[in-house]
Specification:
Elements: H1 4-22, H2 25-39, H3 41-62, H4 68-83, H5 85-112, H6 116-120
Length: 127
């Protein structure tokens, strides 16, 4: 039986673990990259334009129609996004942060004997 003292110890350990993750250089890099990304109006416009283009292309695909001019603009914009330094930094920072959390999950899984991240997923969803 788990006692109140056990629950308190577990809660404190979980809080400390979370704080340690938040203090990591990977998390700080990700937050900074996200901040810079969100503050750049040109990048935000580019991403919004890209998302609108994707929606139009998806609609055309559903209707089994083609728009070569729209597809060419999409490819150009996609290239701009893929090579933009702020977006590139955000993606790299996000990958590093994700790798760290996956490492932490693997360590917890090994120590606890069950997949911690899998248990944290919402029920009934696909993701």
């Amino acid at each position: 039986m788990i006692t109140l003292e056990d629950k308190t110890t577990l809660l404190e350990a979980a809080k400390q673990f979370g704080e340690t993750l938040k203090a990591s250089s990977e998390y700080e890099r990700f937050l900074e990259a996200q901040k810079v990304f969100n503050a750049d109006a040109d990048v935000q416009r580019m991403v919004e334009q890209y998302n609108q283009m994707v929606q139009k292309l998806q609609l055309l695909q559903q209707l089994q129609e083609k728009d070569d001019e729209l597809m060419a603009r999409y490819r150009e914009l996609n290239h701009q996004i893929e090579t933009h330094p702020l977006i590139h930094e955000l993606m790299n920072a996000q990958k590093a942060w994700k790798a760290l959390t996956e490492e932490a999950n693997a360590a917890l899984t090994q120590k606890l004997g069950y997949d911690f991240a899998d248990m944290a997923k919402p029920e009934g969803g696909c993701c």
